[in-house]
Amino acid sequence: MNSFLRFISFSLAAAVVAIGTAPHAHAERLKDLVSFQGVRDSPLIGYGLVVGLDGTGDQTMQTPFTTQSLTNMLGNLGITVNPANAGNMQLKNVAAVMVTGTLPPFARPGEAIDVTVSSMGNAKSLRGGTLLMAPLKGADGQVYAMAQGNIVVGGAGASANGSKVQVNQLAVGRISGGALVERAVPNAITQQGGTMQMELREMDFDTTQRIVAAVNNQFGMGTAMALDGRTIQLRAPDNAGEQVQFMAQLQNIDVKPAQAAAKVILNARTGSIVMNQMVTLQNCAVAHGNLSVVINTKTAVSQPGPFSNGQTVASQQSNIQLKQDNGALKMITGGANLADVVKALNALGATPADLISILQSMKAASALRADLEVI
């Protein structure tokens, strides 16, 4: 039976695509669906000092670790600071910071990576500062990179006579290529027996079987075998150069993924609602009313009469109004595709914030055929 494709745009919380009959997924490269086990980024973290600030550094009375760090650093450089005077130092141009970065897979010593510098004290701004040499450690406690350089801050601000204007964040900056890799992380791609494994970014048994069939069709039966709904085991070449060529060919295989499970994402902070094309709706009736409470408070002054020796008394008088809009019971016609679902929800005339409560109630009544996820 022939099928046809219709693109319909509705404004609910984002533009959505609906399909007239059965939805069809487009073929995607395997590179966008899977990742190879052992090929991963490694987070790095370190502690350091930023100097050269224009009087916007830490207040050392409230951040004693800044003074302690500077004393230790000067001691390593051969400069002795009297401990009795260390607490009296006013370091307005110095700030203690945390330095974070990501070590990419197969990074080699000498390669430069970007780092982010974040104030951990009460520094007002890191603009114009220079990060002193800070070791970056991995999860195992070993040093994998050394960071140093001038910080670029994307924000700007000014203050005078108690007034302050600020654009973006001034306590966080970035150093492009600010860390040099000192140690490589071993990446074990192949396992014992000359095999490697691929992992789907999203678990799906149907998509896993389609990938296995596509790989075996390209390289021969027995090349790929599904271990579970996410992991696929591959029979890889023994030679390292052939393994790279094999992985490059794998990534360019086109696979048509299976349809995702019906899901509705609710953002409780912004009131945003996003749903995929698999969401369906059953016939149901919805009544939704708004309740508002308004409190007006006025100050009433009682003035005593002349020569009465009375006192002026001020009292607070509050007027409370309770208002509830009538919510008529409306019939919602079920829809077999996303276009019908959006049309039915728009017919309610409710705001996205109200729709969050309505969708949760529809789910509880088994009228909404989708998983609700609140973020």
Q: Could you characterize what this model shows?
A:
- With 375 residues, the chain is of the alpha+beta class.
- The chain folds into three domains: 28-39 and 189-255, Aspartate Aminotransferase, domain 1, CATH 3.90.1150; 42-158 and 166-181, no CATH class; 263-292 and 325-374, no CATH class.
- It contains six helices and 23 strands.
- Strands 3-4-5-10-7-6 form a six-stranded antiparallel β-barrel.
- Strand 15 (263-267) and strand 16 form a beta hairpin.
- The longest helix has 15 residues, at 205-219.
- The two termini are 40 Å apart.
- 21% of the residues are buried.
- Residues 1-23 have low confidence and may be disordered.
What would the keywords be for this entry?
disordered N terminus, alpha+beta, Aspartate Aminotransferase, domain 1, 6 helices
Helix content: 10-25%
What characteristic shape results from the CA principal axes? flat
Strand order, biggest sheet?
3-4-5-10-7-6
Gyration radius (Cα, Å) is: 32 Å
Number of helical segments? 6
Extract low-pLDDT stretches.
Answer: 1-23
The percentage of residues in β strands lies in 25-35%
Indicate the multimeric state.
Answer: single chain
Number of domains: 3
Could you state the order of secondary-structure elements as H and E?
A: EEEHHEEEEEEEEHEEHEEEEEEEEHHEE
Q: What's the total number of strands? A: 23
Largest sheet at a glance? 6 strands, antiparallel, barrel
Average pLDDT taken over every residue = 81
Quickly give the structural class: alpha+beta
Q: How widely separated are the two ends?
A: 40 Å
Keywords: Bacterial flagellum, Cell projection, Cilium, Flagellum, Signal
Signal peptide: 1-27
GO molecular function: structural molecule activity
Function: Assembles around the rod to form the L-ring and probably protects the motor/basal body from shearing forces during rotation.
